[in-house]
Amino acid sequence: ENNQVIVFLGASYFRVKGAREQFGLSARGLAIDTIAPHPEEFPHFIAYWIKRPGTDARAITVYALMNSPSAAGAFRFRIRPGRAARVVVRARVIMRHAVREIGFAPLSSMYLYDLGDRRPWAYLRPAVHDSEGLLWRTGDHWRWRQLANPTRVRQFRLPSTHLKGFGLIQRDRVFQDYASASMRYQGRPSAWITPRAPWGRGVLTLIEIPTPSEINDNIVAFWQPHRPPVAGRVYRFDYRMLWNGSGPREGVARIVHTFASARCRGRPTRFALDFQGRGLAALVHRGVVSAHLRAARLIGTPRLITRRPGRVQLRFTLAPYTRATRVRASLWAHGRRVSETWDEVVAREEPPIHVAGTR
Question: Which residues pair with 47 in a beta bridge?
């Protein structure tokens, strides 16, 4: 029986999982200069202390001392196992000198391809990834961005003044969608981070790095303060981490699949988004759901199609584009948003993927 809950992996990396899951994505204490002209700096936890729990304790407390050339820090982890594992992190970090980029509450994961992507020739499995999307919340607004394995390094900076939470999510829990008894990607956890107090003005950053293999972590997500880090500055960050199956409960319809046609020079690109939520199909049937779509060079009128009970598909087409184009789509009913917002940046250099709606 696998009774592990948390594993510290070297540097400042650690992994957590729920009782019925297996380890997948990783977290870190701190990220420094992830994308910079010089090599990335990896702070290390150089010492640990474990507080002896009582006989009836439901959580365990671990203290860690972090050190690196640019920063030093002290961390406290309060770990509560269960079907969903919970970790409360208290971080105190002081900068020794200025750096180009600092990232708090960083997450690292692997994304090779998904059901909608064209598989690499050496892979037969339908999908291979530890996480499939970035989810974040500002106020009451939930946003979703599908991950990608690009042809070159991409960095997205998402201003988030009132960030309520963010995480890398593994939503698809169906074995047949991965068809791997050894890797069990359907059992990998999601990680959701919630600030315990407002972090203030800053930027949520997502980095996607090309990878030819599933052995590489090529996805990084973290939060950056608005002001650049300088020598002598002390940062205090407290946050909760939820490690469970498919992420937090949102109360709105989720985007469960993204499909698109191949990006071809001079040809339109078709998209299909599968939304899933209780009562959603009935609302579409009654004609009270509308699609709000913000995109450049939209062709025709977006269409909503009922796929199965509780699931509808939004289809739309973009005219040929040569530059990166931001597209946002959500469902509304009775004057309010009833779904997440699909928030994407599409570009021709993305890997070509299958025609929308063929699955």
Answer: 65
Determine the length of the chain: 359
| φ/ψ (deg, to 5) at 177 | -75, -10
Nearest-10 Cα torsion for 92, 97, 98, 103:
-30
First to last CA, the chain: 37
Q: Is residue 359 scored above 70 in pLDDT?
A: no
CB 275 within 8 A of CB 252: no
- Structure confidence at residue 307 as a pLDDT band (50, 70, 90): confident
Output phi, psi for 155, to 5 deg. -125, 125
- Say how far apart CA 311 and CA 251 lie, in whole Å: 15
Total-model pTM: 0.92
Cβ neighbours for 226, distance < 8 A, ≥ 6 positions apart = 200, 201, 202, 203
Nearest to 25 by CA among 104, 146, 106: 106
Closest to 191 in 3D by CA, of 114, 86, 90: 86
Q: For residue 253, give the DSSP letter.
A: B
- What confidence tens digit (pLDDT) does each residue in 245-270 have? 888 988 899 999 998 887 666 678 88
CB 44 within 8 A of CB 13: no
Q: For residue 208, which of 14, 42, 344, 37 has the smallest C-alpha distance?
A: 344
What pLDDT was estimated at residue 353? 34
Percentage of the chain modeled with pLDDT above 70: 93
Cα–Cα distance for residue pair 80/85, rounded to 1 Å: 6
| Residue 197, helix vs strand vs coil | coil
**Burial (CB count <10 Å: 0-12, 13-18, 19+), residue 97:** exposed
The answer to whether the beta carbons of residues 171 and 135 sit under 8 Å apart is: no
Of 193, 191, 76, the residue nearest 131 (C-alpha): 191
Which of 178-182, 288-292, 295-299 has the highest average model confidence (pLDDT)? 178-182
Supply the pLDDT for residue 251: 87
